[in-house]
């Protein structure tokens, strides 16, 4: 299975300089210093060696044909009937990534041989890490172009109630809409759309690109004691109402690894949001409640499988295999066709600050 994240040509052509890409989290000056962006959205579940599928399992639910004990005066001590239905869960396959390198056997026999092999191995591990981030954010296709799984934002947009996609450009703050405060589109407009299935007063995450966060960083509210940014008014820990968002996640425009500065080849990939109903695709903010894994779950092996294959007698091929991926909608909660209840998307965010 070949992914849209990295094809074999890209993997073989791009050869980052030794020592440049390793420990990139400790080298922010390189620009790609966020490892495991997917882990900022949700915890990772451990795949056992040899495990290929994640199964939802079975669950018992109350049938819609059940009767509440209800009489003429309301709910009381009258006869009701409970009907139960058993639902068998589905299974979703976790994709496998494969990559490796070839070395001369004699290179491994010199003093620096072990260090060289470890550096190449670390490079592969970082490639797997970037590939998993990209797959989580953008999704994954097979060679024929069939979708293996969607990117997280595409899934949220497709599975949230349509009324939870809010067009900010329909509000004119200069005319008094939202009381002239951009933050009210979150604390009032968006909040009115939730069902309190996954959140009561707060969303867990607000996710947006840097240019959108630039708007929310703007100052403009003075309470007599301090100047607050619009994000302060949205942050549940900062405003008196306690309604808003717990934490913010910046979605990078690109992710990848530093490559040879003298080469035209790059291991850099654009991160794009799904097509907006109105306005610029990147001029959006996603509000995601704490869903406990009901919306999406990450499953990954702790370390890759490794084997050495001899080729041509004097060369060794080191091959690594690693499984990692995301599963969606494992909760069995279905309200009409909407699974991502209480998730909200705000489009045309910049119009609030124009």
SSE layout and pairings?
Blueprint (H helix, E strand, L loop, with lengths): L7 H6 L30 E4 L5 E3 L2 E5 L7 E2 L2 E2 L8 E5 L2 E3 L2 E9 L8 H26 E3 L5 E4 L1 H8 L5 E3 L16 H7 L11 E7 L1 H7 L2 E4 L4 E3 H5 L9 E7 L3 E4 L9 E4 L13 E5 L7 E6 L3 E7 L3 E14 L15 E4 L7
Parallel strand pairs: 1-19, 11-22, 12-15
Antiparallel strand pairs: 2-7, 3-6, 4-5, 8-21, 9-10, 12-18, 13-14, 16-17, 18-22, 19-21, 20-21
Describe this structure in words.
The structure is a single chain. The chain is an alpha+beta fold and 354 residues long. The chain has a single domain (8-62, 88-353), classed as Alpha-Beta Complex (phage-related protein like fold), CATH 3.90.1690. Helix content is 17%, strand content 31%. It has six helices and 22 strands. The strands form eight sheets. Strands 1, 8, 19, 20 and 21 form a five-stranded mixed β-sheet that branches. A five-stranded mixed β-sheet has the order 11-22-18-12-15. Strands 2-7 form a two-stranded antiparallel ribbon. The longest helix has 26 residues, at 113-138. The chain starts with 7 loop residues before the first helix and ends in a 7-residue tail after the last strand. Residues 1-32 have low confidence and may be disordered.
